[in-house]
Amino acid sequence: MMFKDFIKKELVRRTSKDISLVKSLVNNVKRDIIFLNSLEINENSSRKIMSGYYDSLREVLEAISIMDGFKIYSHEAFTYFLKEKGEETLSIKFNRFRKIRNSINYFGKDISIEETKENIEEIKDMIKNLIEKYLRDLK
Question: Which secondary structure element, helix H or strand E, spans residue 70, and what is its range?
């Protein structure tokens, strides 16, 4: 599958660049990360914390896609959006996190504290690098 296939299926639509929305999304991500960082990761919290970090990563990708003139309605489409931008490694990582989040949210799977901690570090690095590369010049 390719990104254009999601456009054909209307899971991605063309939109105008909305700087105010992009700034709002990035600010929300920054506040959410501060909140998530304040939480203790334990047996009871690891699932929700993992989902929260994933949502923050997806929100950054949403901001980037809006800057590129796309509104994406499918989490899977973000994987192909990243590939289209030449971010093959990040697309693989995002897809892995998407599957972990789906297994937690839709199939009741648990995630270990250690796996959550490892994933969170990767996600925080991805968020930082994506913002720096694609969204640093927001004015």
Answer: strand 70-72
Strands 12-14 and 70-72: antiparallel
Token pair of 80 as six digits: 């192909």
Segment (H or E) for 53 = helix 46-67
Contact 94, 122 (CB under 8 A): no
> What is residue 139's predicted lDDT score, i.e. its pLDDT?
61
Residue 60 and residue 26 in contact, taking contact as beta carbons nearer than 8 Å: yes
Angle between the N-to-C axes of helices 46-67 and 19-37, in degrees from 0 to 180, rounded to the nearest 10: 160
Amino acid, single-letter form, for residue 126: M
How far is residue 81's CA from residue 105's CA, in Å, rounded to a whole number?
A: 23
Number of domains present in the structure of the chain: 1
Using CA atoms, how far apart are residues 19 and 33, in angstroms rounded to an integer?
21
27 part of a folded domain: yes
Residue 107 belongs to a domain = yes
Q: What percent of the chain has pLDDT over 70?
A: 99
- For 29, how many CA atoms within 13 A lie in the half-sphere containing its CB? 26
The pLDDT tens digits of the residues spanning 94-112 come to 999 999 999 999 999 999 9
Domain range spanning residue 27?
Answer: 18-68+89-135
